[in-house]
Amino acid sequence: MSNQKRNLFIILCSLFCGIFLCKSSVSAATDKAIMKQVQQMSLQDRIAQMYFTPSSGDNNQMCSDIKKYHLGGVVLFGSDFQNQTPAQFKNKMKQLQQASSIPLFIGTDQEGGTVSRLNDNPQLTNNRQFPAPMKLNQNMQQEVNEAKQTAAILHNLGINWNFAPVADVSNDPNSFIYPRTFGKNYQQTADYIKKVIPTIQSQHVAATLKHFPGYGTAGDTHTGFASTNKSITDFKKEDFLPFKAGIQAHADAVLVSHIIINQIDSQYPASLSPKVINVLRHNLHYSGVIITDDLGMDAITKFAQKKQINADVQAVKAGNDMLLSKNYATGIPAIEKAVKQHQISEKQINNSVYRILVLKKKLGLLK
């Protein structure tokens, strides 16, 4: 190699390395900036970010509570969508965001079919229909198109988190969860999940794998206790397949159910179980945001009453990053007390809030 060529090669290598190092340092700086933000927050504010609260239906009251408690997110239900134009709805979402010092997750359950919040006000979507996933499962491209269009509608309305897709599989058409599933076997459901997760997230809307570790044929935890004796071996061979597919597709969040999985932890519902969360975090290697199902459901309120425990505190002890709970007024100080009494480590709280803020940045909420 001539000296001229050698010098040119050195210059090109230097430029390439410089570009690479620049990109790496930006990435590292961004991570450090979020870590610094977490460290500068009060313990109370960090815990508040872990609350993804169900809306009361009263936007003024929600704005007041967001401002007072510094909550992390709000989940919208049917009444939040009714009797308003798209402009009025978007203005409500803007008011929620303006009430928060840190931009909010604003989420809803838009699965399609029997769980479709957008159906509560057809004028928001020009009378568009949102079919259940199993109604389109003869054509995977239709599924992908439906997921993309739905996420785009949510994003346009100011919603940045969808509690979908359903990764549960049931072989019993009479079971509670069956109408909300893909309606196919474990591997076919995994293929579906692998396609729709990145499609939803491409629209700057967080996707949520639910309901870990899989309902199967278990009963409805909205109305009471439900359990399964299915072995961990069978879970690994069957129910975990769609969740693994979603995790490999970089799902933003995983929602944990309230089913008691007797062969993993017969003492606690999955959402309150350190053993179940450990399986998700370490066996399935999930590093994103873990959120509970609604802690106001009867399975949890009855369990907490029976065991004389605070469900929100136990959910954090179990390892959840976010709590779907409206009990923030009492829950935030209770969790803070548990941290100060060394029942929950401050490092765990910091790790959860870090994951939350990283996701908010990914969604374009943090500048």
Automatic annotation (TrEMBL):
Lineage: Bacteria, Bacillati, Bacillota, Bacilli, Lactobacillales
Name this polypeptide is given: Beta-N-acetylhexosaminidase
Gene Ontology BP terms: carbohydrate metabolic process; peptidoglycan turnover
Keyword Nucleotide-binding in annotation: no
Gene3D superfamilies found in the cross-reference section: Glycoside hydrolase, family 3, N-terminal domain (3.20.20.300)
GO molecular function: hydrolase activity, hydrolyzing O-glycosyl compounds
Family recorded in the similarity comment: Belongs to the glycosyl hydrolase 3 family.
Glycoside hydrolase family 3 N-terminal domain mapped to chain residues: 43-358
Keywords: Glycosidase, Hydrolase, Signal
Endpoints of the signal sequence: 1-28
Domain of life: Bacteria
Presence of keyword Signal: yes
